[in-house]
Amino acid sequence: MKDVRDRMLHTLLRNRGDWVSGGDLSKDFGVSRVSVKNYVDQWVKEGYQIEAVRNRGYLLEKEPSCFHQAGVEYHSRALELKGSLVCFEELDSTNTELDRMLNAGAEAPICVIAGRQSNGKGRRGNQWESDSNSNLYVSAGFRPNIEVTRMGSITLWVGLQLARLLRETYGIPCMVKWPNDLYVEGRKVAGILSEAKIDTDHVQHLIIGLGLNVNRSFRSSKGELKKKATALCEWVEGPLEFAPMAAKICECLMRSAQQYFSEILEDQILEVWEEYDFLKDRKVVAKRPANELEGTAKGINSEGHLILELENGEMETVHSGEVTLRFDANS
């Protein structure tokens, strides 16, 4: 009956703002009107705002602010997502699950979304907090069959496209912090994690994971978390409707990655980087495997490496590593 229930909800979503007769739903889906009402009552409990009026039917007014599988699937189909979509109520990690699926022969491109993660992954083995179903946890998997040397800037490109989407769609002043984070007014809103399986010198499969703070506000948090983290809902009027937002993010993630595989985009990245560069002219500490560098961030080069101006005026490039802002003791 889940399929009937989901398709009935899709009908209400498709007719959002218009009345849908309970009798028509009963007839079209071959269930009793009591069953229709029970479904509607359940959707209301799950966060949908649906008005019910005798002799008029049902009117869907608003969608939930948290993960809802049928809603995400509906909006993804409406956007004609370029690949398949798989949703889970909970996973250990969307990146880990997608790696299992690709290793087992799943077709790509494919997108995996989870309502919650029990072991979300961040960079350098860190854990991404994933206990709220009001945030977005998604991974996109590809079989690009391109040389490893072409992969250097893909995380930057995807980050730029996601930041642009948040600016243009929601008016959120999103920036990109090299190499893989999204920031709004000095606080982190998202992290991107790219993982590749290499066969000789080619990428056998690639996974790009995204953790995005959506409707879990940090305004009431205490200590460092309130200073360091933010969520989309803090920059718009009220919580975002989760499913249409999630579908837009997934579409952007998959489209931008596939564009990167088919085009040479280094010049485009350099052209727009300054506009989105969170670290521009800031004093930073770059933690590399062998040592640490302190300097002023001066953008990126054509390979996507961070350029640092050291105190002696020399320029250094940072290929990878963790970069944090440096605060002087007397500042």
Which quaternary structure do these chains form?
single chain
Order of helices and strands: HHHEEHEHEEHEEEEHHHEEEEE
Q: Mean pLDDT across all residues, rounded? A: 92
* Largest beta sheet: strand ordering: 3-4-5-9-8-7-6
Strand content: 25-35%
Tell the overall outline.
Answer: elongated
**Which structural class do the helices and strands define?**
alpha+beta
**CATH topology call of the largest domain:** BirA Bifunctional Protein, domain 2
Largest sheet: 7 strands, mixed
- Helicity range of the residues? 25-40%
CATH A-level architecture of the largest domain: 2-Layer Sandwich
> What is the CATH domain class of the largest domain?
Alpha Beta
Taking all Cα atoms into account, the compactness measure Rg is: 22 Å
Per DSSP E runs of 2 or more residues, the count of β-strands stands at 14
Q: How many distinct folded domains?
A: 3
Individual helix count: 9
What is the end-to-end distance? 62 Å
Unreliable sequence segments: none
